[in-house]
């Protein structure tokens, strides 16, 4: 039995200003036999109507070639942008992913499809993926949307998948944007999921890197940050141009080791590996923001560290809403 390697990338909107491969500066990192995962935070469709929201994302469906050509096996679509263009946008995205043989988790035509897992068998190991989100439109029995981040629901689904696989990966779109620390409630949930069978938790949504926790010899990545992504307000926040690619190696059904690969996103939204002193600086920063997580992050610490940025982002959101809609 040989090792199974997984590469996980953060937020992806599959677009560049110059219409080139967004991953051209990182493609040399990925071996042909590795599994490739990313958070697809856009709609691949030319149809549908955008709702009233601050940012709506849509990408030319033809850009699916950038996922195919770079070896992506699976993407998470449980996020707050997959329904930006309604059911039509979601259905088109699902259809083109299926036609391209790229699996997806976290959203669907109903709740049954949204919570469905995907299982790969590779190098003598079976690895399952599930995706959930705390933001966005939730799927129901007869309506489309995302798999909601519900503790009861995730534990139920995880226990069912756990019996079928050697390794269980749970993707969570959660947290507060532009904040470097997970909230105490996130840490509690992450640990509960590990206790109930998850081997690796991959977080995204904050658009910045958050700390990493090793819990019961399992791995919790609270936020990978951006990858191929950038919106106007990102410019106002420290760290939004830095992301993290993580390489995780599994052996005999457990995390054997992992590597953190910091990337910097350029003005064309392309990630590139950071090297030298800048790489060391980012890795030291990740180590620093991971320290409070190792025991238990407290509410008082979290509010102290995040209140200024959180209030700033909320005020900005309300000002945009007032300017656009008068309320």
From TrEMBL:
<dbReference type="InterPro" id="IPR019079">
    <property type="entry name" value="Capsule_synth_CapA"/>
</dbReference>
<protein>
    <recommendedName>
        <fullName>Capsule synthesis protein CapA domain-containing protein</fullName>
    </recommendedName>
</protein>
<dbReference type="Pfam" id="PF09587">
    <property type="entry name" value="PGA_cap"/>
</dbReference>
<comment type="similarity">
    <text>Belongs to the CapA family.</text>
</comment>
<dbReference type="InterPro" id="IPR052169">
    <property type="entry name" value="CW_Biosynth-Accessory"/>
</dbReference>
<dbReference type="InterPro" id="IPR029052">
    <property type="entry name" value="Metallo-depent_PP-like"/>
</dbReference>
<feature type="domain" description="Capsule synthesis protein CapA">
    <location>
        <begin position="5"/>
        <end position="231"/>
    </location>
</feature>
């Amino acid at each position: 039995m040989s090792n199974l390697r997984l590469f996980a990338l953060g937020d992806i909107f599959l677009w560049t200003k110059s219409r080139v491969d967004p991953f051209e500066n990182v493609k040399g990192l990925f071996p042909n036999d590795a599994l490739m995962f990313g958070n697809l935070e856009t709609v691949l469709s030319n149809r549908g109507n955008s709702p009233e929201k601050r940012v709506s994302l849509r990408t030319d469906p033809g850009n699916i070639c950038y996922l195919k050509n770079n070896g992506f096996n699976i993407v998470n679509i449980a996020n707050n942008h997959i329904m930006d263009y309604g059911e039509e946008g979601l259905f088109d995205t699902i259809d083109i992913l299926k036609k391209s043989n790229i699996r997806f988790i976290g959203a669907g035509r109903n709740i049954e499809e949204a919570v469905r897992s995907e299982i790969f068998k590779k190098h003598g190991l079976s690895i399952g993926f599930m995706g959930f989100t705390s933001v966005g439109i939730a799927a129901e029995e007869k309506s489309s949307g995302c798999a909601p981040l519900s503790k009861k629901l995730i534990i139920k689904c995880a226990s069912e998948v756990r019996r079928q696989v050697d390794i269980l990966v749970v993707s969570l779109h959660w947290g507060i944007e532009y904040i470097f620390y997970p909230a105490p409630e996130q840490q509690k949930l992450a640990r509960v999921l590990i206790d109930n069978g998850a081997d690796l938790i991959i977080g995204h949504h904050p658009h910045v890197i958050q700390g990493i926790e090793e819990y019961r010899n399992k791995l919790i990545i609270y936020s990978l940050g951006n990858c191929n992504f950038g919106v106007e307000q990102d410019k106002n926040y420290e760290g939004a141009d830095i992301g993290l690619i993580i390489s995780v190696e599994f052996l005999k059904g457990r995390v054997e080791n992992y590597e953190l690969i910091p990337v910097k996103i350029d003005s064309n939204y392309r990630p590139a590996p950071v090297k030298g002193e800048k790489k060391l600086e980012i890795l030291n920063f990740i180590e620093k923001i991971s320290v409070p997580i190792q025991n238990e992050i407290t509410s008082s610490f979290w509010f102290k560290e995040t209140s200024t940025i959180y209030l700033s982002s909320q005020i900005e959101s309300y000002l945009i809403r007032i300017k656009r809609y008068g309320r």
